[in-house]
Each structure stands twice: as structure tokens, then as C-alpha cells.
Design brief:
single chain, about 500 residues, alpha+beta, Uridine Diphospho-n-acetylenolpyruvylglucosamine Reductase, domain 3, Vanillyl-alcohol Oxidase, Chain A, domain 3, seven-stranded antiparallel sheet, five-stranded antiparallel sheet, binds flavin-adenine dinucleotide, FAD-linked_Oxidoreductase, oxidoreductase activity, FAD-bd_PCMH_sub2
Length: about 500
């Protein structure tokens, strides 16, 4: 009798504790989930004022780094990610995911909730036949090239050392090798992904095919957390050739038509070539400068870097550049050559136009100059000392659009018949938080003006590349109705209860 009474008392106490926990969880699900997971996954949950928290809280853009989540969770394995997602959905705790932390806008990585930082998922394994590299989702691109360069192998990946593989591949991924092979998302053999339910699934052209298609440009946000990318590896036994040319802005009426012609005829005729062109306002160099970087995966000479590939010669032979450098280098060297330091505020926006008219590109340059004038007025008005606006033209020639069609195509909604296209990317770096709103407003005005102008001339396309998009841009709307509806159907299938829609905060969502 006494035993029964004791047991009853224990269960009543347990119910009371569960009620207290439930109430606490209802009141503050983030804190509750952090505490629950610190018991379930010892050593993997990091609270403010700890060294591990500070390590996770490093972001390229200060607009991210200044926000502090309740805790960071650093899973060590796919199973850990599964435990985390099951717990977060059960407790209704809001979360987001960080791979390399290179998104410009706030709210992409950090929320007033939980950030799952994938930085421990850094495995890199090459298959015995050298055709596949299995890559953990917390890797940076420099890790991959450092592992592959000595083997004479490469993958279609990022062009800068520090961004993460996660965000770059799931949004698309423009690479030095895109001319022949498409974007990074077109060169994933399979994705290991943890769904909202905690189930671990492999999506490939033969298994979960709709999910595989969706992950090629549809972002993780809507489908689950990718823990491993199985990437197509290919032989890259030689260094790459690269050339960098800096011109005064005054050459624009000569340079832009040549660049447009390169996009339309040069690049499709030589799929190993890759390039972009940037206009930067730098008063220290006298105002506007034009910088074009050029890359080639099969150099014309392995001993003489000054031998420029044929496709780039019309631009390389323009007179009087401010500087002109060429080199032969492996991928790791090229990746580290473009340094984009941490510690400033950033915004990136973009749109795409048809690349068939040199005068459109020149007029876009003028619109950018009006945007720069607005930004300088804002910065001077606030007494802010530094603001650097960039405009980058990134070609999507027809050969890239064709290469995107492999394995059933991707979710970006781009067809070869749409091309050739030019991504118009506006980026600004500044320091003063007070002018965030004005910088965003001016950038939106610039992008709207570009779209209006292109529309008037019948040269609009409007594709918004997720990885360069501003927070408010309608990325999935720009993929076209068919693509967005299919993505939504697949998201409903793999997240039938809408848990990711409800709990995954920030970044680009389908609804
Ligand atoms: C210096 C610099 C150089 C760049 N170079 C290139 C380039 O060469 N080519 C190019 O195409 N783009 C480039 N970008 C853009 C870049 O692709 C995007 O900023 C991209 O989002 C960065 O990925 P990340 O993992 O570092 O970012 P994060 O901010 O960590 O990730 C972005 C979002 O992706 C989601 N996500 C990340 N990992 C996962 C995962 N494993 N599973 C599910 N969802 C996930 C999260 O929602 C997250 O909010 C560059 C950006 C910078 C700042």
C-alpha cells in the first residue's frame, strides 16, 4: 500500500515537473530548446559569453554579427542534425542555419532563437575512382581546393576562399568552371538532407528526384538541412590562367561594347573561359574605375602567363590600362586572391537583363552613377566616413544556360532561349548603421530603374540570383510560375506539416 502511494506521489511529481517544463517551453521555446539540446547533445550547445559562441558568431557582414541568438548549436554528425530538428519542431523553437555565414543582410543567419552552425561538418572524401568528392556542409571553399589541388582535381564551386559550400550550392553557385559545366548546383551527384521530421534522405537523379531538382536552386530553407554534398569531381591537372585589368572609368564607351560582345560570342565559343566586370567608385583613384577579371581553365601556355587566351585578347589589348596583371595559379591561390574582408556593413541586390545590347549596359552604368551620387550624399549627410558602391556585370552566356539543363535541369527557371543574360549586381560596403535604410532604399531604386529600362527596350528578364539578392527581393517569383509552383508542391510533400515554413526564420522562403 505504502509502495503504491509512493509511486503515485512520484508520478504526480513527474507530471508537475513536465508541466513546469512545458509552461517554460511555451513561454520561451528557444531557451527551452537550447537547454533540452544541451542535455541531449552534450558540448554541442553554446550560450553567450562562451568562446564557442563567439567563434560561431563570426559573420562576413556586420549586419549579421551584431544580432545574438539565444544559443548556437554545432552538430557533429548528420544524426545530431536529425536530433536537433526533431527537438526544435517538437518544442516549436524558431531557428536558422549557418554554413559559411556570407549573406549580406541581417536575419539570414541569426534570429532571436537558435542558429544551427554547421562548422563542424567538414569532412572531405574523394571516391576511389576520383569522380566524386563527398563534402560536409560546413566546409569553406578553400578547404575543398586545398584538398583537391594536390590531387589535380577540381569541382564546380565558389571563386573566393571563405564563403560556405552550403549557401553557395543551394542558391546556385557561379564558378570559374561554369562555362563548360553550369553552376555548382548542376554538379551535385546527390544531397544528404535531414527533413523537418528528422528523417535522413539522399536526393539524387535516381532517388527522391523532385527533391533533387528542388535543391538545385530552391534553397535549403524550404526543404531541410543538407549535411553532405556529393560533388562531381573532374581532372584539373594544370593551373588556371588569370588576368586582371584595371581601367579608368572614362573608357566605358569602348570597354562595355567589347564586354557585351565577349558575352554573346566569345564566351560561348570557349567554354573554359570565365569573367566578370566591376565598376567601383574610388575617389583615391580619381573616381570611377573599371576592373575586369578573366579566367581560363586551359591556359594557352604553361610557362608564359603573359600569353592571353584568344577570347580575352580584344579587351586585353585596349591601350593604357591603370594596371594589367596575368598569372598561372592553382585554385587555392586564385580563391585567396580575392579578399573581401569582414567587419563592414553590406548589401547585395541583383537582377538580370538580356545581354544583347551594348547601349543598355552603358545606360545601366549611368543609372549606377546616379545611385552612387545618392549614396555619397547620404554618407556625407550622416558624417559617415566610408561607403564603397560596386556594380558588377556577371555574364550568363548561352553555353552556361545549356549546361544547366543536365540531369533534368535546375529550379532556377532559366532556359537557353532566355540568353545570353547579364546579371546586374549592386553591392555596397559601409560602416554607419544609421544609414542602413537609405542604402537599401537607393539600391532598390537602382534595381527598379534597371528593370524599367530593360522592360522599355524589350530586354528585360528579371531573374534574381538568390546568392546576390537583397532581403526583400522576390527570388522565387523571378524563377517563373511553373518553377515556383513545382517547388511549393515538393516542399509540401517533404514538409507536410509546414514546420520549416513556420520555424525556419530569415532567408528566402517559398511562401
Ligand atoms: C566574398 C564573397 C564571395 C562570393 N563568391 C561567390 C561566387 O564565387 N559564386 C557565387 O555564386 N556566389 C558567391 N558569393 C555569394 C554566396 O554564394 C552567398 O552569399 C551564399 O549564401 C554564401 O553561402 P554561405 O554558406 O557562406 O552563407 P550562409 O549565410 O551561411 O548561408 C546562406 C543561407 O543558406 C542556407 N543554408 C546554408 N547552408 C545550408 C545547409 N547545409 N542546408 C540548408 N540550408 C543551408 C541558410 O538558410 C542560410 O541562411 C560570394 C559571397 C561573398 C560574400
Amino acid at each position: 500500500m505504502r509502495v503504491i502511494a509512493l509511486l503515485a506521489a512520484i508520478s504526480l511529481a513527474q507530471i508537475a515537473v513536465a508541466n513546469i517544463v512545458n509552461k517554460a517551453c511555451n513561454k520561451n521555446p528557444s531557451t527551452c530548446a537550447c537547454t533540452t539540446l544541451s542535455t541531449a547533445l552534450p558540448g554541442r550547445v553554446h550560450f553567450p559569453n562562451s568562446t564557442e559562441y563567439e567563434i560561431s558568431n563570426q559573420y562576413w557582414s556586420n549586419r549579421q554579427a551584431e544580432i545574438h541568438p539565444t544559443c548556437f548549436i554545432t552538430p557533429n554528425s548528420t544524426t545530431d542534425v536529425s536530433v536537433i530538428l526533431k527537438t526544435l519542431t517538437r518544442l516549436s523553437a524558431p531557428f536558422t542555419v549557418k554554413s559559411g555565414g556570407h549573406t549580406a543582410f541581417a536575419g539570414s543567419n541569426l534570429v532571436d532563437g537558435i542558429t544551427i552552425d554547421l562548422r563542424l561538418l567538414t569532412s572531405i572524401t574523394v571516391s576511389p575512382d576520383r569522380r566524386t568528392v563527398y563534402v560536409g556542409a560546413g566546409n569553406r571553399w578553400i578547404n575543398i581546393s586545398t584538398a583537391l589541388d594536390p590531387l589535380g582535381l577540381a569541382v564546380v564551386g565558389g571563386r573566393v576562399s571563405d564563403p560556405g559550400v552550403g549557401g553557395l550550392i543551394l542558391g546556385g553557385g557561379i564558378s570559374y568552371f561554369s562555362g563548360r559545366r553550369g553552376w555548382a548546383c548542376d554538379n551535385v551527384r546527390s544531397y544528404e538532407i535531414v527533413l523537418a521530421s528528422g528523417a535522413i534522405v539522399t536526393a539524387s537523379p535516381t532517388s527522391h528526384r523532385d527533391l533533387y531538382w528542388s535543391l538545385r536552386g530552391g534553397a535549403g530553407t524550404n526543404f531541410g538541412i543538407v549535411t553532405r554534398f556529393d560533388l562531381v569531381a573532374f581532372e584539373q591537372p594544370t593551373p588556371l590562367w588569370s588576368g586582371s585589368l584595371l581601367f579608368p572609368g572614362s573608357i566605358n564607351t569602348t570597354l562595355l561594347p567589347l564586354y557585351q560582345n565577349l558575352t554573346v560570342t566569345g564566351l560561348p565559343s570557349d567554354p573554359d573561359a570565365h569573367t566578370y566586370l566591376t565598376s567601383i567608385f574610388l575617389p583615391s583613384l580619381g573616381g570611377y574605375i573599371l576592373l575586369t577579371d578573366q579566367y581560363h581553365a586551359t591556359p594557352p601556355s604553361l610557362s608564359d602567363p603573359s600569353l592571353t587566351p584568344q577570347v580575352f585578347r580584344p579587351i586585353a589589348s585596349l591601350p593604357d590600362p591603370i594596371s594589367h596583371t596575368t598569372r598561372l595559379a592553382n585554385l587555392s591561390t586564385l580563391l585567396t586572391a580575392i579578399d573581401q574582408p569582414y567587419g563592414a556593413r553590406q548589401t547585395w541586390w541583383n537582377t538580370a537583363v538580356r545581354a544583347t545590347s551594348p547601349s543598355l549596359l552603358l545606360d545601366i552604368l549611368s543609372l549606377h552613377e546616379a545611385h552612387v551620387t545618392r549614396l555619397l550624399a547620404v554618407a556625407n549627410g550622416s558624417g559617415s566616413d566610408t561607403i564603397t558602391p560596386f556594380l558588377t556585370f556577371q555574364p550568363i552566356p548561352v553555353n552556361v544556360l545549356q549546361a544547366m539543363q543536365t540531369n533534368g535541369g535546375n529550379a532556377l527557371g532559366l532556359e537557353p532561349a532566355d540568353g545570353p543574360l547579364m546579371i546586374i549586381q549592386s553591392a555596397t560596403t559601409w560602416t554607419d548603421k544609421e544609414i542602413d535604410g537609405a542604402v537599401e532604399a537607393s539600391t532598390q531604386k537602382f534595381i527598379d530603374a534597371v528593370n524599367d529600362l530593360a522592360r522599355k527596350r524589350g530586354l528585360d528578364n528579371g531573374f534574381v540570383y538568390m546568392n546576390y539578392a537583397g532581403k526583400g527581393q522576390d527570388v522565387f517569383g523571378s524563377y517563373g510560375r511553373g518553377s515556383r509552383e513545382r517547388l511549393r508542391r515538393v516542399a509540401r510533400e517533404y514538409d507536410p506539416l509546414g514546420e520549416l515554413r513556420r520555424l525556419w526564420r530569415g532567408y528566402f522562403k517559398l511562401w
